[in-house]
Task: structure prediction
Amino acid sequence: MTTADVNGLVPVDTADAAQTQKSQKLTLLPLVALVVGSMIGGGVFNLPSDMSKGASPGAILIGWLITGIGMLMLAFVYQSLAVRKPNLNAGPYAYAKAGFGPFVGFNSAWGYWLSAFLGNVAYAVAIFSALSHFFPIFGDGNNLPSIIGASLCLWLIHALVLGGIKQAAFVNVVTSIAKLVPLFLFILVAIVGFHWDRFTVDFWGAGTGSGGTGSGSGGLGPVVEQVKSTMLVTLWVFIGIEGASVYSARAARRSDVGRATVIGFVGALGIYVLVSLLATGVLRQPELADLKVPSMAGVFESLVGPWGAALINIGLVISVGGAFLSWTLLCAEIPYTCGRDGTFPKWFARENANGSPVNALWATNLLIQFFLALTFLSRSAYQFFYFIASVAILPPYVLSGAYALKLALTGEGYGAESRTKDILIGALATAYGLWLVYAAGLQYLLMCAVLFAPGILVYFRARRECGERAFTGVEAIIAALIIVLALLAAWLMWIGKISPL
Result:
């Protein structure tokens, strides 16, 4: 007896297919690599500047402490859900849908998609800002030559994917080496060049200030405000912590998904803390805040000379270039998967003759192209787009924690075992997510509402195709709230109270 391969074209023996499928299952080490590879991308190369723009070393330490605890709880959440809900294999949005209904699940998927393609816009800016070290014509990565260059790369990748190129194993190996070698070298050299006096001279930001909020003393403002300023930065570099859960269906053992998430998180956290704090002992806060993307290059140059900046910039271009390729594939995979399971309209699930998600890819890349053009109008394009990407991914993260808390409170899937630990983990993960919503600030939340509002029409179309009622009473209230916030944001942007760029 035979069955078809994944493309439905080539008959193969059933036993052979089962054996091949088993051999292709992911063990612990590849899952850890997926988590680390998903998290450690372009953001780490600009941590010295991003963390120091509005925070002192003391506030940065508190920020990492809060993020470490919050993200560890989220890692435990994904560890628990991978075991307790083995039938949910699509990652965060599947948990939101299972726990809180189709419309909440849709918004989780929509936010995940928004975050993915807006993150690619930020990646494009970072790549061409790094290239300007060698080719000054690219400026800060968002001028006309940069936009043209990024657009050419985008549509070249688009053509390759349409042609059926889906495997990027070699690219992933190269980019992993490219990102880790300069990072470890930077950490080693920065330890040698670290000045304790420079690190502690204004530990709480009372007197250095560089465009801070101000507190009457010319400093960076209250410590709480400084800590808040670091939250979206720390979230940005941890996006991808759910990487193993997205591939949970391919794991050899479900328990390895959770282990990989926790191990990958601890490793990434160590690198992030060292990079951001060591930099504050090399350059002072105003100097760090004024460095261009990638700021690690400026710090390294101050330690070893021009070759250091060149090394970091090369590492970023290769690393983020690979991430740009990988995330272009992922960006299209999200609406494609959602189209297949009815969360998005079926239009997104269409494949071409090569098995590529053609409609999802076109929709994604046209949106990336639109926002790439908008970077020309932005004063700080890289930071703006990764801030928006970070806010957009909050619904999947908050709702994952809330779903774990709901399961622990109701006892679903627990039997007679104790639920106290999981209640605490779910509560802390949810509280951390809500703290991030608060720390994001009203401006970014309102601008995200503008991006979520069009999704209501997409959801309505998907529900009509399934022959189901679009909204329940509570879902209608949520939809109305999103529309009201989007209209408010549009009005505030029109009168100049908030700036989208």
